[in-house]
Design brief:
The complex is a heterodimer of chains A (about 425) and B (about 290).
Chain A (H helix, E strand, L loop, with lengths): L24 H14 L6 H17 L6 H26 L7 H17 L5 H26 L3 H20 L4 E3 L5 H8 L4 H28 L7 H23 L6 H19 L1 H11 L1 H6 L4 H27 L1 E3 L7 H11 L12 H19 L4 H28 L4
Chain B lengths: L8 H4 L4 E10 L2 E11 L4 E5 L6 H9 L6 E6 L2 E3 L4 H7 L1 E4 L11 H5 L6 E2 L1 E2 L1 H14 L16 H13 L5 E5 L7 H16 L3 E5 L3 H7 L2 E6 L2 E7 L5 H9 L5 H17 L19
Parallel strand pairs in B: 3-10, 3-11, 6-9, 9-10
Antiparallel strand pairs in B: 1-2, 1-4, 4-5, 7-8, 11-12
Helix pairs in contact in B: 6-7
The chains are: A mainly alpha (about 425), B alpha/beta (about 290).
Chain lengths: ~425, ~290
């Protein structure tokens, strides 16, 4: 790497300014992380600490909490609402909100149930119809928002009621439909688990991919005359990830293993993260969330960004509804009702996506839903009923929003708001 | 009455941007009446005037925010119309508005290339970062890191980023609306240096400013607007602060001066036959020497 004796011209293009405090290697990475946290850029730190605290408390209260059987259940419980929460992250990044994701997911479940049992559709057709209906609802929201300028809060509040009504209409007088247990979507959601060798292979592939992209980025940066991070940091990062994933997989494998539905959810999170951080569309989502006017003047087609995000949010909601009903083998009046809506929104916020727009990541859906479902799962294990569960989840959501606001204030006082 | 401008080297060449007889009304209000303005390559032209003089309206016409009612805009020798902001950018006119329009949550590189990202399937961050550095170095911009959020930059640095962004599309005219309005002494100096560097690059620069010291420090020509009309076109080198101020405020445009100039013209007419091509001294006129 660089040594202090070299002249500025020999330094990488991004390190020539003498005011830059240069830190290198592993120590540099740790120092930079500390500085970020002090500056109010907390990232995922509060939620990871929170998750550890929650797990420790529940493990003390009930030794079954961290059993592999319960953790496998936890992952399956996360997948459906977590998928809905990915869409919420997107819409929050724009500084908007979708309150109707619960109703839309319930409508998708109703379409799946009626399609499979009463209309005799093949599963694939029912799934596609449900997803298309979801996308169409999002398109409608997008049009209403961009053409008439109605706040998304109001549009989706209306949608919450309207699509709840439509869900009841589709379900008909019975109000509850049991899905055929042998259909592949139910099998996928309930009984499909990765064999251990495949799960280990995935862990190796994931860690290898992290290592490969980091090394490739470093070589491209070197070619462009820019500074590169230390290879040791990359190594520690990918080996750490590998160890973590292998431990998780090995522990889950002592029970049923890694559920296919949970894997689908994680893959969706990773894919959305890629689109948000590495594509033009993702950049424009962050830009619109940061400043609509600036984005518009920069030539971004703001309306298209809004419409695309509303479509994605409703489609993710529909997909989440399908997964939830497949896991419960039923579509009923209560599909997507109750706390689905607020859990999905709470997960995104708890995971660290700002309610104020322009800040967040797809991974907050994963982290946030783990927190929400851990609380719900732990309280159920303690035989506490839903009254307590709602109150505690509400308190955690409030805490997450307070942390969001505080870190925003801290960023402002460190001149980074 | 306003000082006659001797044709300089720059004004002999074809102007890159030329406005002739531009008028614009909003309902009953004539915001601009018969405005003429030339900008040459490698020239900094300052537009000054009181509040309500029509400076912002003129900029908005050039930026494509709203079209003029009458008059022609000539760009690179071609008569053009500028119906939309995109059309303005496509012609090669870059406008930096007073509020800068930066996304605070994005870093410097993202802001510079916002809407014009370099992609090869995915975003090419390395190429963008490299080009961001070379652009900022050309402008001698004092930005320590291009990977920090724009929110953490000082006012002058933010102005620098906004100006640098306008250069990404290789424009031939840059319009700056109050570039130094919110800046401290040192930052103002930085931005003025930056404007001089734009001139060295051969761009036509149009700045709007209320600050006469800045105008005199950096502009080659000063165009005064008063109540929506041209009220003087000066070479900065030949004009005093007081003359510009009196053109802005209209202090010279009163009964006494009008009578004095009328006498002068009458006296000149008596002594020798007036040259047909020589314009009579204007009162609050829109006469501009060319």
């Amino acid at each position: 790497m660089t040594t202090p004796s070299e002249t500025p011209a020999e330094r990488a293009a991004d390190l020539q300014d003498e005011r830059l405090v240069r830190t290198e290697g592993v120590r540099g990475a740790i120092l930079a992380f500390q500085q970020r946290v002090r500056g109010g850029d907390l990232g995922s730190l509060p939620v990871i600490i929170g998750l550890i605290v929650i797990w420790v408390i529940f493990q003390i209260l009930n030794p079954n909490f961290l059993s592999s059987n319960n953790l496998v259940n936890l992952t399956l419980q996360c997948a459906a609402v977590g998928t809905i929460s990915i869409g919420i992250v997107l819409v929050l990044l724009l500084g908007q909100i979708d309150l109707s994701v619960g109703s839309v997911s319930g409508l998708a479940a109703a379409i799946l149930g009626v399609g499979l049992t009463q209309l005799g559709w093949p599963v694939a057709l029912a799934v596609v119809v449900a997803l298309v209906v979801g996308a169409a609802i999002g398109f409608l929201y997008g049009l209403l928002f961009t053409r008439f300028g109605v706040p998304s809060f109001v549009i989706t509040l209306a949608g919450l009621l309207a699509f709840l009504g439509l869900q009841l209409k589709v379900l008909g007088p019975n109000g509850s439909i049991n899905l055929p247990y042998d259909s592949w979507i139910v099998q996928f959601a309930q009984a499909t688990f990765l064999p251990p060798w495949a799960a280990y292979a995935l862990a190796v592939i994931a860690a290898g991919a992290v290592f490969y992209t980091d090394v490739r980025r470093a070589s491209r940066r070197r070619k462009a005359g820019l500074s590169t991070g230390a290879i040791s940091v990359t190594l520690i990062k990918s080996i750490g990830l590998l160890v973590l994933l292998v431990i998780v997989v090995a522990y889950l494998a002592t029970d049923r293993g890694l559920g296919a539905m949970f894997l689908l959810f994680v893959v969706l999170v990773v894919v959305m993260n890629f689109f948000l951080t590495r594509t033009r569309w993702g950049r424009s989502v962050f830009a619109v969330g940061g400043s609509v006017e600036a984005a518009r003047r920069a030539g971004i087609r703001v309306n298209r960004v809004y419409i695309s995000v509303f479509i994605l949010t409703s489609t993710f909601a529909a997909l989440g509804g399908l997964l939830a009903s497949a896991r419960l083998t039923s579509a009923s009046l209560s599909s997507g009702g109750g706390d689905t809506n607020l859990n999905a929104i709470a997960a995104a916020v708890i995971g660290g996506t700002s309610l104020f727009g322009g800040r967040g990541s797809a991974y907050s859906a994963l982290l946030g839903i783990l927190v929400i479902q851990s609380i719900s799962n732990g309280l159920t294990l303690l035989n506490l009923d839903s009254s307590i569960r709602y109150m505690i989840t509400g308190a955690v959501l409030l805490l997450a929003v307070i942390i969001d606001s505080l870190s925003r204030r801290s960023r402002a006082s460190h001149g980074q708001a | 009455m306003q000082s006659a401008v001797a044709p300089s080297a720059s004004s002999l060449r074809e102007p890159v941007l030329s406005l002739k007889g531009i008028s614009k009304g909003f309902g009953a209000v004539r915001a601009l009446t018969d405005i003429n303005l030339d900008v040459h390559a490698g020239e900094v032209v300052a537009i000054v005037g009181d509040n309500g003089a029509g400076k912002s309206t003129l900029v908005k016409i050039l930026a494509g925010v709203h079209p003029q009612d009458s008059g022609t805009i000539t760009f690179d020798g071609q008569v053009v119309s500028i119906p939309t902001p995109t059309a303005s950018r496509a012609l090669g006119i870059a406008t930096v508005f007073q509020d800068l329009a930066l996304c605070d949550n994005l870093d410097v590189v993202s802001n510079l290339f916002l809407g014009r990202e370099i992609t090869h399937g995915t975003l090419d961050e390395e190429e963008m970062e490299q080009r961001a550095w070379s652009l900022l170095r050309q402008l001698s911009a004092k930005i320590p890191s291009v990977r920090i959020a724009v929110a953490s930059l000082s006012g002058g640095q933010r102005q620098t980023v906004a100006i640098a962004r306008s250069l990404i599309g290789e424009p031939s005219v840059v319009i700056l609306d109050e570039p130094t309005a919110a800046l401290g002494v040192a930052q103002t100096a930085e931005v003025l240096n930056l404007i001089e560097r734009l001139r060295e690059r051969g761009l036509g620069v149009l700045i709007i400013s209320h600050n006469m010291a800045d105008v005199q420090a950096v502009a080659d020509r000063v165009v005064v607007l008063r109540l929506g009309r041209n009220n003087g076109d000066f070479h900065v080198a030949d004009v005093s602060y007081e003359e510009i101020i009196s053109a802005i405020t209209g202090a010279t445009d009163n009964v006494v001066t009008r009578r004095a100039s009328a006498h002068a013209v009458a006296a000149a007419a008596e002594s020798h036959a007036p040259d047909a091509t020589e314009p009579p001294a204007p009162s609050a006129g829109s006469k501009e020497n060319r």
